[in-house]
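Action item from last meeting closed. Structure (317 res):
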């Protein structure tokens, strides 16, 4: 292994990410033959093929996945070294790659702006994805810190630190028959048509838990949609109601386009977590962001106002 080079490992990463020699060469600023030679030398050094050559592109073998993970870890350690050396020099610059689940994109830019006002020399990068994508980005070291409502369990060693409340509510259009009702029974709301996120999303998991004591309800939750924006538009169009993060509906509630239904047992109050890998060192920029979240993270979360109608009446069951 003594003959491995950073150039070879970066070549490996580029091929794994882009799936084709030509695309990897373009990203690396090399010719395709040069990339092929780098890969061949790496495979000879390791004694195994790292990719299966298929009609659709280069697919990592089991050995390729192990080598790619190691290359990513080495690259990350080098980046941490640069940050640490800068800290020793007294340099306050650095970079932070922030991953957020799609629900958190409604407040992440506000949070980033507040943090960068305190640390103007820190460069930030934002990567938005669903829950599965964000967890994968933690696994592959694509992000330094991830903001999510439910930390991952298993698969990747993490440390999760809460930084603010995360209320989950049920919303409907203003003209919904239950819009002015108070303490709507769970059994009554369970009969409504729900618009829901994909399997595995944090809000969907919470809705499944909320309805778990109603026989058969979890088996057919409702119409699945791929984003909070689509769900909100569908609710406003009268297609149904939705169980959703209160932090995604600030503008629509203030404008009167959505109302929060006062359902008994809601809002469910979860927490937002800052999640990082526990098997890697904390860079100075990560430490600065952690300190910021501890002090001011909760203040950057949206204000939803009243979570139920002020002049509500009891529904007719």
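Sequence:
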């Amino acid at each position: 292994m003594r003959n491995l080079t950073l150039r070879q490992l970066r070549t490996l990463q580029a091929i794994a990410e882009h799936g084709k020699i030509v695309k990897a060469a373009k990203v690396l600023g090399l010719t395709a033959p040069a990339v092929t030679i780098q890969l061949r030398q790496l495979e000879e050094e390791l004694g195994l093929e790292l990719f299966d050559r298929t009609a659709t592109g280069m697919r990592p073998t089991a050995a390729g996945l192990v080598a790619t993970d190691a290359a990513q870890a080495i690259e990350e350690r080098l980046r941490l070294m640069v940050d640490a050396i800068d800290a020793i020099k007294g340099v306050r610059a650095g970079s932070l790659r922030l991953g957020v689940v799609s629900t958190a994109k409604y407040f992440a830019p506000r949070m980033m702006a507040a943090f960068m006002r305190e640390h103007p020399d820190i460069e930030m990068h934002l990567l938005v994805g669903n829950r599965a994508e964000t967890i994968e980005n933690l696994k592959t070291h694509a992000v330094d810190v991830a903001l999510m409502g439910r930390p991952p369990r298993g698969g990747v060693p993490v440390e999760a630190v809460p930084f603010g409340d995360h209320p989950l509510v049920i919303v409907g259009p203003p003209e919904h028959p239950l819009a002015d009702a108070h303490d709507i029974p769970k059994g009554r709301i369970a009969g409504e048509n729900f618009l829901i996120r994909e399997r595995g999303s944090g809000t969907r998991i919470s809705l499944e838990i909320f309805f778990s004591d109603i026989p058969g309800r979890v088996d057919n939750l409702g119409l699945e949609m791929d984003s909070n924006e689509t769900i909100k538009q569908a609710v406003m169009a009268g297609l149904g109601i939705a169980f959703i993060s209160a932090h995604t509906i600030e503008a629509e509630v203030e404008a009167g386009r959505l109302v929060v239904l006062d359902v008994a047992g809601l809002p469910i109050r979860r927490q937002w977590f800052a999640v990082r890998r526990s098997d890697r060192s904390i860079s100075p920029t990560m430490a600065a962001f952690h300190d910021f979240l501890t002090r001011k993270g909760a203040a950057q979360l949206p204000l939803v106002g009243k979570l139920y109608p002020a002049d509500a009446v009891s529904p007719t069951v």
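Note appended to the action item: The CA atoms of residues 249 and 314 lie 24 Å apart.
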